[in-house]
Amino acid sequence: MPKPMTTPFSYSTTYVLDKSHFVETYDASAPPATPIKAYTIAMALGLAGLMLLMLTEIDPFVAWFVVALGGLEAFSVRYKKAWWLGRQLISKAANTELKLTVDEEGISSESIHVKSTLPWNEIKQIESTESGWLLYHKGGKNYLSARALSEEAKVFVVAKAKRVNLKGA
């Protein structure tokens, strides 16, 4: 008895790259850092500036500049999410429609600004998050939101994740 022909899986949807999408992407993909580790550079710059100010004959302007760099670094750590989100919201991609396609070949994104495809064979690892998946590849990592996918597409991505993660182990 011949096997029934199965049609290849393909799912497409469109959604807007709005603030909620960017917040979800940041929350899922930003590496968590412990507060002490995150502020290490800021503390080192501040201490180095104070040591220059107190222990050397260097121009106080230079020492205060190093202290100010430490403060700026602390500010950038504290407001990292807001800074990243602000940059995304003023980018040309903000509030544009994106067409997402998940199929047997890979994951494709298309908008008026970008057309890209991430083939499954280039993905080294797929990590599940609370709201989607992180796709690790040679060029870095991409985020795939589950809220944009149908139940069938989610099942398909989970199955692909199992194959990709087994292959990479």
Automatic annotation (TrEMBL):
Please give the start and end residues of each transmembrane region. 38-55, 61-79
The cross-references to Pfam families, in alphabetical order and at most eight, read: YcxB (PF14317)
- UniProt-listed InterPro entries: YcxB-like_C
Q: Which UniProt keywords apply?
A: Membrane, Transmembrane, Transmembrane helix
State the superkingdom.
Answer: Bacteria
**Where is each YcxB-like C-terminal domain found?**
102-156
User: What's this protein's name?
Assistant: YcxB-like C-terminal domain-containing protein
Which organism does this sequence originate in? Paraglaciecola agarilytica NO2
